[in-house]
Amino acid sequence: MVSAALNEYLSEHGNGETFDGLLAKPPIKELAPFDGSHPLTDYFISSSHNTYLLANQLWGAASPQAYTTALHGLAARAPARCVELDVWWTSKKGPILTHGHTLTGSVPFQEACLAIGNAIGPNDLPAWISLECHVDADKQPQLVKIMEEAWGDKLLSLKLEHVDESLRGGKKRTGKAHLKLTIVGGDDIPHAEEGKSRSLYVVAKLFKGAEKLEWKTKSIKDHDADPMFLSTVEWDWEDDDLVFLRVELKEDVWGRDQEVASYTLLVDRLATGLRFWPLFDKTGMPSVGRLLVDVDFKVGA
User: What is the pTM assigned to this prediction?
Assistant: First the structure.
């Protein structure tokens, strides 16, 4: 059901925008076409952590298929170009991948290496291996042999002669970035107990390296899963190309505020104006909920 409060806001402040029209707009800017002409140091590498695991990191199952999925991408997830191998030695199975000192499953090291090799085609972008090695030095030559046999000439083992070592990446970005973010209100916010009122607020967090800026709205009583916040924050920072913005919708419960839903994006992909941001539940899965925001983002000298 369309939020009556949001419809009223749009009729008064939407500059002609409609609820359905905003739903049809992408929440963020589309990615620019990939340009592979720069040196590798110019790029951020999409990386996978504990790649072999299919579920949580304490007792989840493991499979070599996870490497195929990570390197090819799945649904809304973009392919990774760096995958991780946590290798341990066992007396019965030889080298395996597992999350040490936990109850997770394991994968034979050789099977994982074969899956990686089969997932990388001749026209693919390079892939990196993050090898977390818990194997004693005297057994490490066996790991090398397995990798060489599994990857063959796909494994870069010698220096590339044609690479210009003077390349050190592009020019560092400079200037001031300014963000004015208005949290207008929510629509179809996930609710564990239908028909029960609750108090909600939004926390916005900006991450730039080790720096973090944080702000929150006032708590608002919510009866119909469509709270109206109408709160604005403005931030300034030194421009950088790796700044993230996260908004968290939280339930105001005495002593234990609980996250209801969230949305995280790269600031460089902010789309300005009124936008609906999709919300993900606390398990990381998409929900039907969304947050109407008004974005003004500028970068200057």
Answer: 0.73
